Amino acid sequence: MKETGKPKTKPYRSTLSNAIWSFQEILKVSPICLLPIALEVPLNVFLAYAEIYLPSLAIAVITAHASLAHMAFKISLVILLMLMATVLRTFTVGLSEAYLSKYSFLERVKVTKKSMTCFFQTYESKDVRDLSDRAIRSTEYWNGAQPISDMPRRSMKLLENILCYLLFGSVISYVTPLLIPILTIAPVVNWLCAKAYRNWEYAHRDKWTDIDRRLWYVQGETADFKAGKDIRIYGMAGWLRQVYSDLCSQRTYWNRQMVWRSFLSRIADLAVILLRDGAAYALLIKMTVQGQLTVDRFLLYFSAISMFATFIGNIMTQWNGIRSASLNVCDFRQYSDFPEQDGTGEADAESHLHSAPQIAFEHVSFQYKGSEADTLTDLEFTIRPGEKVALVGLNGAGKTTLVKLLCGLYLPTEGDIRINGVSVRKFRRDDYYRLFAPVFQDVQTGFFSLAETVSGQIGAGTDFDRAEQCMKLAGLGEKLASLPQGIHTKLDKQLYEDGIALSGGEAQKLMLARALYKDAPILVLDEPTAALDPIAENQIYLQYQQMTQGKTSLFISHRLASTQFCDRILYLKDGRIAEEGTHQEPIALGGEYAALYEKQSCWYKCEKKF
User: Fold this and answer.
1) CB neighbours of 154 closer than 8 A, spacing ≥ 6?
2) Angle at which helices 534-547 and 504-518 cross, to 10°
3) Edge-to-edge strands, sheet with 568-573
4) In a 10 Å sphere around its CB, with 0-12 CB exposed, 13-18 middle and 19+ buried, how is residue 423 labelled?
5) C-alpha 209: how far from its chain's center?
6) What is the pTM of this model?
């Protein structure tokens, strides 16, 4: 993808392509939606003509000295038809809005689904997350319009105004055919001005997209209940206000740029309207004074010219609106079209689920996008079936990156990872994920019940007995016993009156229970005891043998004392395996692992004398 810092002048898809795509999407979701939208076109065309025809008709029957009954019949008939058309139009507008809301909701679901299923390595990059924000905004209402559903509606409005242009143009041509090109050519200036503004806005949109995302982040942090303690105790309120104020100033700068350029385009539009309409009205007045037009014809043509100019402006407005909506649809389609990195699909994870598999890293290197150096370099090691391996090292050594590669969240820049001899690139992603039950450092608990959080299923999809057993094995037995609703207790007390908030250690145990519930053949524990107290940590270690029975496991920790129960230690330094062996083997070598272990263990062995 192009860097977001560089202006993008060429849209992802053409306006025509986006219009066709929008109608195709509606046909997939709700084909009947197009009927009320299409019905609005002839109804609005009729009402527009009836609006100028009715006053002219009244003047005509009056000046013709028609009978009162004849006059009332003609005028009443037109008014009745207008009333019926208005009622029917109101009904179709309401109906189309209902169907379009369904369509726009389902499109919003697609964006959300893409965010949850997009290849993690792709989604993690800033430019993709910026695009994700814009794709989400294309499904939201802004100034009463929703870009993703605005495209088909504006397309039909464009058709409606073109038909009115042709109808009213035929009326005006009776005055003089020269009026048609004069009234038509003038708005080209307006269109060019609007196009210049629109192109500038599209080319610079990344500037305020990034600012908006930062503003939303600061707003979210200040409203986050979890951050409330830090904000108060560390006096961060003033700092956050200043950050928010600075971001608002940056956003205001771009708002001023947008308003100023929009103002200039509207000034040009106003000047053209004055020249165009002034000349047309002067001609009509001259023809009437000279007796070339009757009063009713003057009124009809005068109204037609006024409306004709409106339709030309509407055509430009709708076209510009379509182009603007198209740019938003480009964001939606571009984000939706990101490749899923699903692999070839030749391998089936099912055959690897029922026994502890072997894991092999074959000359694996990985480099983050934009980085000048590899985070991991030429890793070559094998974890035997059922083996319990501890991955240790200082911060920045590459441990978490290695875990993400193993779990299929990243793909190696070079080399390959194999499960029982099968390359990770041959598994489909969702199928490959079935092999792993990880517990990551970052804990996300959601707002479901304890049992549903552990199972990842709603209601009847949860095996409650199994969920409870896994929670007890993870060290939550006493917590469950203290809760009146047990495993059915809801998380997040901000959403539920009887909900609970777990401590950091309890949340980490819950994530461990979730990994046990999944019962995948590969257990990955990335700092699983970081938030636990020493007693709870020791309980987890004592139960580790039971947790890993029949599984291949990878245990990542900064605490080297916790690695003694593993079969083998891999000491990672600067993205490479620096030392390897059982706990005692690198200790005997007296290298970096031994030195680091000695530094950590002294806090447990030494007694400070006062």
Assistant:
1) 318, 321, 322, 325
2) 0
3) 436-439, 522-526, 552-557, 388-392, 568-573, 576-581
4) middle
5) 13
6) 0.71
- CA–CA separation, 86 and 73 (whole Å): 20
Helix/strand/coil for 65: coil
Distance CA 174, CA 344 (A): 68
Q: Which helix (H) or strand (E) holds 377?
A: strand 376-383
What band does 546 get if pLDDT is binned at 50, 70 and 90?
A: confident
Q: Is 414 exposed, middle or buried (0-12, 13-18, 19+ CB in 10 A)?
A: middle
User: Among candidates 319, 19, 320, 315, which has minimal Cα distance to 198?
Assistant: 320
In 3D, which of 355, 388, 351 has the Cα closest to residue 541?
388
Q: With contact defined as beta carbons under 8 Å apart, do 119 and 341 qualify?
A: yes
In terms of Cβ atoms closer than 10 Å to its own Cβ (0-12, 13-18, 19+), residue 64 is exposed
Query: Count of residues for the chain?
Result: 610
Q: For residues 323 and 321, give the distance between their C-alpha atoms in angstroms, rounded to a whole number.
A: 5
**E strand map for 270-346:** none
**What is the per-residue pLDDT for 569?**
92
Sheet architecture: strand order including 422-423: 376-383, 359-366, 414-419, 422-423
The answer to whether 100 and 153 have CB atoms below 8 angstroms apart is yes
Averaged confidence pLDDT in the chain: 84
* DSSP string for 217-247: HHHHHHH-GGGHHHHHHTT-HHHHHHHHHHH
Q: 344 versus 352: which is more confidently predicted?
A: 352
Locate all alpha helices (DSSP H) within 426-533, ordered by sequence: 429-433, 450-455, 464-473, 477-482, 504-518
